[in-house]
């Protein structure tokens, strides 16, 4: 336990909930790795193991009306936003009952009904979107935060500078959440950027900014909670740097030539799950049997998710041209001819633009 | 009424909708680099007419994000070359989001761009990239060539639930033509036959429609009746209209201010060859810009661009007439 | 017994070289534990275990290249029997499991360069449209001259038109193409003529459908009273003197043409040229297939009786092969009557350069409403195929109505012509 560690949340529901949130993410990611190795999940798979405290601490502070934009390392965020493990796993398996009909895969989890606007696989690609969402919120008089997760690698992209500037210039309610795990794929932060203090960079744009220990879920919870509330109450952007570390390779097919094993081991000593668990136990707020029960629930949840994903159907190839255009004459013809055939495969939010209030 | 005035009227009509706003570089106090939005700031105020920083990538992306948030942004990009700074947002987000999320979202953003050459503004302000953008599934690409379309397409684009890029040719802003007093949305699904003719089909769009019409008049004096087709929408491409015409005339000339290589003119040629090969009575002809960046001096700029005599010659070649 | 297989670490990984085992038989292995080092294109990667158990057999020696999905070790869970059997030298892929997808890229097969295309045989080129039309019309492109070395569509069509004219003219023996061959003529001659007839029809009909923007109108005419009148007229006449409804159809058509002259004449050189006379072409099927439509000259000046006689004469001469060439080429409008074939309605193809064709179906009894009562009446369906370049639907309608109206005026149809 660390003397400078943030105060534990006062209520047990939150304090224990944060632990369970982290456990669920880890178990989800372990299952994903297992089924990637088995060939069920393909493409790129970026795991969040080691970084769980960031999503767990932050997601709990975001409200239903806040909008969320994430990166391609977003399974945990999606899970804690309320997407079921099954719909996430099914998406990763590429099946039609996945949250994005299997169109997106691991990097593109979407659920418009939860205002979860996707994993974006273009580094810094979602920052302008979050700025635009905040602009729409401002124009429509909504007092909500537009939260955007991105890595420290995104801070080298022009889009991040433009977005920080525009959000500050137009007083837009954007919550910038920089997950600094020190490596942009294999490029260390110190090898690629001069100013490595992310919060300092945001401050230059006149944005209120802070940096917290992203391995401490209580600290993340506290800092993001304050920042999110400030965004909602002032309508101005805020920036939080979350210093963290991924224990796994960048993606599954990565020999990790760019960092020392010793460095990884050193960070693993700070694994956010056992560290937080120990703090709770030391404070007398957690007993081993409670942790065991959490583990078992997570195991059961993820195993059920895999079973469901494995059993789910594929999207019919004839549907391939759907969802390119909202008005799709060729597809509409096809739909008329096959009316009802695939109805059971269509997830909610299938109405054109229903989710962004544009149903016509 | 001018093309510029028609767009401004359509903007004014659109801006009365609470959800609609205009943003871009110098659209407000400056009045728009081609003066399209002149006066609108006074009329609608800075919340609806937003001057942006020189951040194409982010203000285009913000337009996409705002569209996700339920408003209807019109984003002006000062000139088509600058849109390349926003290409990531247009291609990786606007065009793909609906597909990637399995149909949960639509992206009703309208992006207006000034395109084309003829104003001697050299190689970083004069290109024609609409053909490039027409390569991308998920986008709708419009190229108004007439005053009526200039305003009507903007209103139709705002009715479209998907991202629409409107390429306004810089040489047309001062063009005079008939347009409705009250702007009305026009059809944006079909090409239009601007001149009927039986002998050869000239397929074009945007800034070169006028040149094609002039060429057709010259050909007519020689007894060659050219049919002139204005594509209007480059994606989704209405190939039925030009294929039907080519099936009647058996000859095609494509006029495009873009370069030939890998262009919309190449695409049209391919579709004619794929779908009307046995109707062709002559090789397809193309009149395009020479494959150089657009030069500054007037005589060189004009030499690069498709011109009336070249269109006339191409049409005559298809008629096996002596050129 | 369970198998541990070479994991797939990326879509582009097809196999890995087992570099080093990190476990040995008898070791207990846990979830997440690294069990081996595998060399891949991207470097050496530790591969992990996703289960709990004890290693029984290592199937692969370090340095072996193993395809993704092949077993590399055997283990057993706690409580299970250890695996004792050693598989063969090469482990077979496990059965029952879903196979991994095939590698995305296949090595391209080398092929020798294709032989150069054969050169132009005679230096003459033809456009795709010209080639296709030539095949349709039976025109030999090699016989054409081309313009600037290229045979165009127009040249093929001109050649086809000339062929059609040739085919339509009487042959040397005074017999139209496709007519009955003389006895004893070799069979090839008959086939050649039949082919020529088909080609002639193909050329004319093909041209018609390509060039003539057809519109079609139809009406149904109650013939009950007219037929009753005709029966009375025929009652005391010999078979030779009797008038059949077919003659009334011709008579009504010829008189209607006078009222609407736009239906009578030719479309040539981009203009309609009305005819001075009404030469009524009558489509007559040949027994051996094919048809011709020779004209009854000045049909509007012939009474129904005279038309009946002319029709019988024409049919006889067509079948006998003595149609005059002027009869073949002079028709200004054509009538086709397929009622005898049991056809209800005809949608005819106009004979170019004519501009109209009138079709009659069979006379049939149908329910008909008169003064609010349904009664049985004998009716005929009449159609007009019109050339929209020469006339519009409105005038066509006036014409078709005139035919129907005249058919209900038997006295007028039967009156003697002065």
Describe this structure in words.
The complex is a heterotrimer of chains A (360), B (323) and C (418). Helix content of chain A is 43%, strand content 10%. With 360 residues, chain A is α/β, with parallel strands linked by helices. In chain A, helix 1 crosses helix 3 and helix 1 crosses helix 12. Chain A starts with 11 loop residues before the first helix and ends in a 23-residue tail after the last helix. Chain B has 323 residues and is of the alpha/beta class. In chain B, the strands form two sheets. In chain B, strands 2-1-3-4-6-5-10 form a seven-stranded mixed beta sheet, with helices on both faces. Chain B has a five-stranded mixed beta sheet with strand order 7-9-8-11-12, with helices on both faces. Chain B contains twelve helices and twelve strands. With 418 residues, chain C is an alpha+beta fold. Chain C has nine helices and 21 strands. In chain C, helix 1 runs parallel beside helix 2, helix 2 crosses helix 3 and helix 5 packs across helix 6. Chains in contact: A-B, A-C, B-C.
Give the mean pLDDT of chain A: 91
* Strand count of chain A: 8
Query: Unreliable stretches of chain C, pLDDT < 50, 5 or more residues?
Result: 87-121, 170-188
| Major beta sheet summary of chain A | 6 strands, parallel
Strand content of chain A: 5-15%
Oligomeric composition of the shown chains: heterotrimer
How many beta-strand segments of chain C?
Answer: 21
Main structural class of chain A: alpha/beta
User: In what order do the strands lie side by side in the largest sheet of chain A?
Assistant: 2-1-3-4-8-7
Q: Average pLDDT across residues of chain C?
A: 80
In short:
The complex is a heterotrimer of chains A (360), B (323) and C (418). With 360 residues, chain A is of the alpha/beta class.
How are the secondary structure elements laid out?
The complex is a heterotrimer of chains A (360), B (323) and C (418).
Chain A: H1 12-37, H2 52-59, E1 67-70, H3 75-81, H4 85-92, E2 116-119, H5 127-139, E3 146-151, H6 158-169, E4 174-180, E5 183-184, E6 187-188, H7 189-192, H8 198-204, E7 208-213, H9 217-234, E8 238-243, H10 261-268, H11 272-282, H12 288-311, H13 329-337
Parallel strand pairs in A: 1-2, 1-3, 3-4, 4-8, 7-8
Antiparallel strand pairs in A: 5-6
Helix pairs in contact in A: 1-2, 1-3, 1-11, 1-12, 2-3, 2-9, 4-12, 5-6
Chain B: H1 3-15, E1 20-24, H2 40-44, E2 49-51, H3 56-68, E3 72-77, H4 87-94, H5 97-100, E4 110-115, H6 130-133, E5 140-142, H7 147-159, E6 164-169, E7 192-195, E8 200-204, H8 209-221, E9 226-230, E10 233-235, H9 239-249, E11 252-259, H10 264-276, E12 285-289, H11 298-304, H12 308-318
Helix pairs in contact in B: 1-7, 3-4, 8-12, 9-10
Chain C: E1 2-5, E2 15-21, E3 28-29, E4 34-40, E5 43-48, E6 53-58, E7 65-67, E8 71-76, E9 125-126, H1 128-137, E10 150-151, H2 153-168, H3 187-211, E11 214-222, H4 224-235, H5 245-259, E12 265-268, E13 271-274, E14 280-282, E15 284-285, E16 291-292, E17 295-296, H6 304-320, H7 325-329, E18 333-337, E19 356-360, E20 364-370, E21 373-387, H8 393-407, H9 410-414
Helix pairs in contact in C: 1-2, 2-3, 5-6, 5-8
């Amino acid at each position: 336990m660390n003397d400078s560690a943030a105060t534990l949340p006062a209520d047990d529901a939150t304090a224990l909930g944060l632990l369970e949130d982290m456990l669920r993410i880890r178990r989800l990611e372990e299952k994903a790795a297992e089924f990637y190795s088995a060939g069920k999940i393909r493409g790129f798979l970026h795991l969040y193991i080691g970084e769980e405290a960031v999503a767990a601490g932050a997601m709990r502070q975001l409200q239903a009306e806040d909008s969320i934009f994430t990166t391609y390392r977003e399974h945990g965020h999606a899970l804690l936003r309320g997407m079921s493990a099954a719909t996430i796993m099914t998406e990763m398996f590429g099946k039609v009952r996945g949250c994005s009909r299997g169109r997106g895969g691991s990097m593109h989890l979407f659920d418009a009904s939860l205002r979860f606007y996707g994993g974006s696989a273009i580094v810094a690609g979602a920052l302008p979107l979050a700025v635009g969402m905040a602009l729409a919120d401002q124009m429509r008089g909504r007092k909500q935060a537009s939260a955007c997760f991105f890595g420290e690698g995104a801070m080298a992209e022009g889009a991040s500078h433009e977005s920080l500037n525009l959000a500050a210039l137009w007083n837009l309610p954007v919550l910038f959440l920089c997950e600094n795990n020190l490596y942009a794929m294999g490029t260390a932060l110190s090898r690629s950027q001069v100013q490595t203090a992310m919060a300092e960079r945001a401050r230059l744009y006149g944005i209120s900014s802070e940096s917290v220990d992203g391995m401490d879920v209580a600290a993340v919870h506290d800092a993001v909670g304050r920042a999110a509330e400030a965004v909602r109450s002032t309508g101005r952007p805020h920036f939080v740097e979350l210093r963290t570390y991924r224990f796994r390779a960048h993606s599954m097919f990565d020999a990790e030539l760019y960092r020392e094993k010793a460095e990884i081991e050193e960070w693993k000593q700070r694994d956010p799950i056992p560290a937080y668990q120990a703090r709770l136990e030391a404070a007398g707020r957690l007993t081993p049997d409670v942790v065991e029960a959490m583990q078992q629930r997570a195991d059961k949840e993820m195993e059920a998710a895999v079973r469901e994903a494995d059993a789910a159907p594929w999207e019919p190839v004839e549907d391939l041209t759907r969802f390119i255009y909202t008005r799709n004459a060729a597809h509409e013809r096809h739909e008329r001819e096959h009316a009802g055939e695939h109805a059971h495969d269509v997830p909610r939010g299938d109405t054109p633009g229903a989710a962004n209030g544009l149903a016509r | 009424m001018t093309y510029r005035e028609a767009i401004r009227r359509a903007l004014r009509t659109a801006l009365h909708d609470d959800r609609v706003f205009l943003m871009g570089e110098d659209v407000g106090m400056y009045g728009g680099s081609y003066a399209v939005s002149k006066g609108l700031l006074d009329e609608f105020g800075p919340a609806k007419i937003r001057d942006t920083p020189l951040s194409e990538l982010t203000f285009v992306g913000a337009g996409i994000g705002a569209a996700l948030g339920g408003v209807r942004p019109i984003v002006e990009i000062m000139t088509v070359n600058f849109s390349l700074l926003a290409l990531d947002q247009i291609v990786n987000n606007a065009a793909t989001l609906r597909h990637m999320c399995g149909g949960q979202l639509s992206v009703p953003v309208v992006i207006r761009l000034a395109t084309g050459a003829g104003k001697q503004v050299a190689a970083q302000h004069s290109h024609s990239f609409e053909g490039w953008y027409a390569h991308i599934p998920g986008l709708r690409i419009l190229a108004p060539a007439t005053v009526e379309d200039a305003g009507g397409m903007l209103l139709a684009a705002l009715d479209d639930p998907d991202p629409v890029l409107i390429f306004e040719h810089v040489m047309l802003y001062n063009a005079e033509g008939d347009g409705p007093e009250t702007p009305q949305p026009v059809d944006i699904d079909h090409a239009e036959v601007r001149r009927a003719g039986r002998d050869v089909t000239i397929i074009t769009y945007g800034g070169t429609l006028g040149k094609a019409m002039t060429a057709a008049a010259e050909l007519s004096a020689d007894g060659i009746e050219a049919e002139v087709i204005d594509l209007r929408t480059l994606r989704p491409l209405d190939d039925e209209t030009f294929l039907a015409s080519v099936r009647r005339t058996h000859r095609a000339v494509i006029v495009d201010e873009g370069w030939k290589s890998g262009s919309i003119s190449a695409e049209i040629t391919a579709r004619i060859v794929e779908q009307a090969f046995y109707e062709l009575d002559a090789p397809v002809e193309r009149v395009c810009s020479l494959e150089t960046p657009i030069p500054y001096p007037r005589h060189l700029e004009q030499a690069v661009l498709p011109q009336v005599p070249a269109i006339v010659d191409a049409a005559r070649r298809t008629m096996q007439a002596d050129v | 017994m369970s198998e541990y297989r070479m994991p797939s670490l990326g879509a582009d990984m097809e196999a890995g070289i087992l570099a080093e085992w990190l476990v040995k038989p008898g070791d207990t292995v846990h979830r997440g534990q690294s069990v081996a080092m595998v060399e891949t294109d991207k470097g050496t990667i530790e591969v992990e275990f996703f289960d709990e158990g004890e290693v029984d057999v290592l199937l692969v020696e370090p340095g072996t290249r193993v395809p993704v999905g092949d077993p590399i070790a055997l283990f057993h869970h706690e409580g299970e029997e250890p695996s004792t059997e050693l598989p063969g030298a090469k482990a077979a892929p496990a059965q029952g499991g879903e196979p991994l997808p095939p590698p995305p890229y296949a090595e391209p097969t080398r092929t020798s360069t294709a032989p150069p295309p054969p050169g132009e045989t005679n230096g003459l080129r033809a456009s795709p449209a010209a080639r296709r039309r030539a095949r349709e019309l039976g025109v030999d492109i090699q016989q054409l001259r081309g313009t600037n070395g290229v045979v165009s569509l127009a040249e093929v069509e001109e050649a086809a038109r000339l062929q059609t004219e040739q085919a339509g003219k009487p042959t040397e023996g005074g017999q139209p193409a496709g007519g009955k061959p003389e006895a004893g003529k070799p069979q090839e001659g008959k086939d050649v003529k039949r082919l020529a007839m088909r080609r002639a029809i193909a050329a004319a009909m093909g041209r018609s459908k390509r060039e003539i923007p057809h519109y079609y109108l139809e009406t149904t005419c109650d013939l009950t009273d007219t037929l009753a009148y005709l029966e009375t007229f025929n009652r005391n006449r010999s078979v030779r003197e009797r008038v059949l409804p077919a003659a009334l159809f011709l008579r009504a058509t010829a008189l209607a043409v006078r009222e609407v002259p736009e239906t009578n004449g030719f479309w040539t050189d981009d203009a309609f040229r009305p005819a001075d006379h009404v030469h009524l072409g009558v489509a007559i099927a040949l027994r051996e297939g094919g048809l011709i439509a020779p004209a009854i000259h000045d049909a509007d000046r012939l009474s129904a009786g005279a038309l009946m006689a002319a029709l019988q004469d024409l049919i006889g001469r067509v079948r006998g092969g003595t149609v005059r060439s002027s009869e073949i080429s002079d028709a200004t409008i054509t009538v086709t009557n397929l009622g005898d074939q049991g056809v209800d309605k005809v949608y005819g193809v106009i004979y170019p350069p004519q501009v109209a064709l009138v079709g009659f179906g069979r006379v049939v009894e149908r329910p008909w409403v008169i003064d609010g009562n349904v009664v049985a009446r004998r009716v005929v369906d009449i159609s007009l195929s019109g050339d929209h370049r020469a006339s519009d639907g409105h005038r066509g309608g006036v014409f078709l109505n005139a035919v129907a109206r005249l058919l209900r005026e038997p006295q007028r149809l039967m009156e003697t012509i002065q």
